[in-house]
Amino acid sequence: MALVSLRDVTKTFPPSQRGGTPVTAIDRVSLDIEAGDVYGIIGYSGAGKSTLVRLINALESVSSGSILVDGVEINGLRESELRRLRLGIGMIFQQFNLFNSKTVWNNVAYPLRVARTPKHEIGPRVDELLSFVGLSDKAKNYPEQLSGGQKQRVGIARALATSPRILLADESTSALDPETTQEVLALLKRVNEEFGVTIIVITHEMDVIQTLATKVAVMDAGRVVEHGDVFDVFSRPRELSSQRFVSTVVRGVPSPSELAVLRERHHGRIVTLSFRDGNTSQGDVFLRLAQAGIEFELVYGGINDIRGQVFGHLTLALRGDPPAIDAALSDLTTTVEITDLGVTSSGSGA
Amino acid sequence: MDDLIQLLPKLGQATVETLYIVALSLLFGGLGGLLVGLGLYTTRPGNLYSSRVVYGILNVIVNVFRPIPFIIFLAAAQPLARLVVGTGIGNTAIIFTLSLAATFGISRIVEQNLLTVQPGVIEAARSVGASRSRIILTLVIPEALGPLVLGYTFVFVAIVDMSAVAGYVGGGGLGTFAIQYGYRQFNPAVTWAAVLVIILIVQAVQFLGNWLARKTLRR
Ligand SMILES: Nc1ncnc2c1ncn2[C@@H]1O[C@H](COP(=O)(O)OP(=O)(O)OP(=O)(O)O)[C@@H](O)[C@H]1O
Ligand SMILES: [Mg+2]
């Protein structure tokens, strides 16, 4: 039984002006998020990512379909029941959304007061959370006295105060510089690993998915167009929008214009080797080419690592005896996927 | 000058009366304005108690009554004052009418200042399961407290201004004093003495307001 389960969920916003057309922000989405997952949701602006997570903690209500959180249908719950649901779901935001009129300590204590936690338990709990996020010395400060990374750590402490099982992170690192982003991601990773909190992380930064997520869903125009293990989706993106996303971090097969540039600079037979199953060793492939007496040059591409699994695309220019190249390539097809881009017309390798 | 010295006890009494009228009007008008302002803010489409109908009604009422010049409002509201506080003249009537007029003016100031609270902050509070009334009391008002204090300071000055016409309905205070003993007796020194006291009161309150606002804003 999935921890969060969406079935045919649709969310339509009424038109902003009279006579306008309603906006379908979420369009018949079904998705299962298992306990312990770090589930990434990616997609371009306006794809419906924020709306999707806001449906999960019922900040927005569904137009149709069903959402089960821990087996409980949340569509149609009363306001008081929704408040109880939200106590079990933390949320962090791109703009942090800290309470500026309250100290760091009181920001973190706020959800506990909402939950009517006994006073003598609030103190130790807040101290414990602040020490977890490394901000014990900032307890008495106000949010405006903190850096962006520190603010987000307060946001995380506040979101975790009532020990929720689920954490929703909407673009939680998009306002941070790369170094601070890594700090916050490392903290979120600990939240997942040490407390077993299921994290649903929205991002347009592939980096975030790569370092944090185990599963990913790609959204486009309100629909989930592709989902699965991060490695599978990234190494074999099926849909155009997923491919575009993946191509922002992973160089794939060169496009025709890139190929034209490559042909000007390198001669020989150009092939792209795609490593997709996570275990194939590049060294092994190179060794076999060398043994076949083929001269090769790496001209384009890159190799990526997702949680220890390797994938990527390497484009090589091969030079040598054409039949030997043919033989070597057909030998290699058993280990890697090969896209043959042909021989440069001007300077053939023969 | 001798006249002024003779009039000093009366000036003192007028000052006390002005402070009394202004303080009570600010209290009632301030509370009324806070409630109506909260009503405007919370029922505004997309907000916590979003309701097009209630917001529309409140909006029209405030828009209709707020721009009426106070001296006309004072005359027009006299029957209502008789009905509610039992008299249409004197300090009680002026306090009632001032409170009413201030309610409309303050409600807009309150609404505008509450609107400066970022929607994301309210969303964060909703996401931890806070109820709407809790959000308003423990979050929206504290977050907007600095600007609210400045807004109320501004209103205080406006009420001092409006209270000067109390004499028209038989009320007392510095305005009445200045007209009665200064203007009508062709004694500018007396008028200027009343002006000086008003300036002192306004300055003192403005200073206090700024100080309080700075304290709540901690900047
Ligand atoms: N409260 C609302 N009222 C009307 N339309 C809305 C509302 N919230 C979102 N939408 C619309 O729903 C669609 C999806 O918005 P959403 O904020 O979920 O996108 P997103 O994927 O989070 O985008 P971004 O990456 O820019 O944050 C958009 O077309 C947006 O205009
Ligand atoms: Mg968004």
Low-confidence parts of chain B: none
| CATH H-level superfamily title of chain B | MetI-like
Structural class of chain A: alpha/beta
Relative strand content of chain A: 25-35%
Instruction: Report the CATH architecture of the largest domain in chain A.
Output: 3-Layer(aba) Sandwich
Give the CATH class of chain B.
Answer: Mainly Alpha
Principal-axes shape call of chain B: elongated
The total of beta strands of chain A comes to: 14
The most extensive interface, with participating residues per chain, is: A-B, 31 and 21 residues
Largest sheet of chain B: none
Distance between the termini of chain A: 61 Å
CATH class membership of the largest domain in chain A: Alpha Beta
CATH H-tier superfamily of the largest domain in chain A: P-loop containing nucleotide triphosphate hydrolases
Helix percentage of chain A: 25-40%
**Helix coverage percent of chain B:** over 70%
**In angstroms, what is the radius of gyration of chain B?**
20 Å
For the biggest sheet of chain A, the summary is: 6 strands, mixed
Strand order of the largest sheet of chain A: 6-7-8-3-9-10
Report how far the terminal alpha carbons of chain B are from each other.
46 Å
Membrane topology (chain B): Multi-pass membrane protein
Organism (chain B): Herbiconiux daphne
Domain ABC transmembrane type-1 (chain B): 15-209
Keywords (chain B): Cell membrane, Membrane, Transmembrane, Transmembrane helix, Transport
